Amino acid sequence: MIAGLGLPGTAGAQTAAGAPTAQTASLPHAAAAPPAVLAENRIYRSGTASPLSCPIPEIREGSAASLKTFHRAMARCADRFWATRFRAAGLTYTSPKVTITTGSSSVCGKITSNGAQYCPTQRTVAIRIMKRDLTDPFRMNIAHSVAHEWGHHVQQLTGMLDEQNRLYWRARGSARSIVSHRLEMQAECFAGVFYSVALDSIDPGITWDQWIGAVREAEESKVHGKPRNLAYWQNRGYTSGSAGSCNTWKASLARVS
Ligand SMILES: [Zn+2]
């Protein structure tokens, strides 16, 4: 069941055509001293999540319509959750658009083979229904598309995604990968914070430890970083229930490799 586990796509900004000219200005230590918008963001003071109950329906094997309904329900749940956390932090929240397709293109390009993408400019969570979701639905993995991409939406609304994008294009080589990992691991942590109150509603059919074990065993991706670190951050968000535990920008290199 866990063999096909793949991480949802990254935020589309990094793959946007036409890299800014900042690419030529090398700032090798940029990640070592992150700007305040990343290191001291107000979202870290959004407190501990309040209980949440969402109606998340069953998935019927082979039914794209049923998968769409599931994703829509997950989206409504994530939206409610983050609206509350933003209010608690004194931040303004706006909902992203959500598109669900069985094809491979979204408003900001091709959706990765892992089935989801966040388009920052269009503020859109783009979900692709994959064949394996129809033939062998792994409920928690399917739920994770919305949970992870919503993490990128949180990063967009708080200014972190733009700042990360600047750092990303200025950095080179392994420093650039680390900037990418910090973003992705934070999205994983935000997903974990959401799960801390939404897991019962999602009713994944496996235990949290089994899920984290599956994340740890997933294939390594250059963009996301080491699965064991992704599992660490997701679990950290889940156990703390607070976005304040998701400051990957100050974390040691070993935790974001
Ligand atoms: Zn991502």
Task: For this entry, give a set of tags.
257 residues, mainly alpha, three-stranded mixed sheet, two-stranded antiparallel ribbon, 46% helix, 7% strand, globular, binds zinc ion
Largest sheet, spatial ordering of strands: 1-5-4
Helical content, roughly?
40-55%
Number of domains: 1
Nearest-angstrom radius of gyration? Answer: 17 Å
Q: What is the averaged pLDDT score?
A: 89
The outline comes out as: globular
Counting DSSP H or I runs of 4 or more residues, the number of helices is 8
- Low-pLDDT stretches are 13-31
What ligand molecules are bound, each kind once? Answer: zinc ion
Structural class: mainly alpha
Order of helices and strands: HHEEEEEHHHHHH
The tally of beta strands, per DSSP, is: 5
How would a crystallographer describe the biggest sheet? Answer: 3 strands, mixed
Distance between the termini: 26 Å
**Strand portion:** 5-15%
Task: Explain the overall architecture.
- With about 260 residues, the chain is mainly alpha-helical.
- It has one domain.
- It has helices spanning about 35-40, 65-90, 130-135, 140-155, 160-170, 175-200, 210-215, 225-240, and strands spanning about 95-100, 105, 110, 115-120, 125-130.
- The strands form 2 sheets. The chain has a 3-stranded mixed β-sheet with strand order 1-5-4, with helices on one face.
- A hairpin with a 4-residue loop joins strand 4 (about 115-120) and strand 5.
- Helix 4 packs across helix 6 (about 175-200), helix 5 (about 160-170) runs antiparallel to helix 6 and helix 7 packs antiparallel against helix 8 (about 225-240).
- The longest helix is centred in the C-terminal third of the chain and has 30 residues, at about 175-200.
- It is globular, with a radius of gyration of 17 Å.
- Zinc ion (ZN) binds near residues 10, 148 and 152.
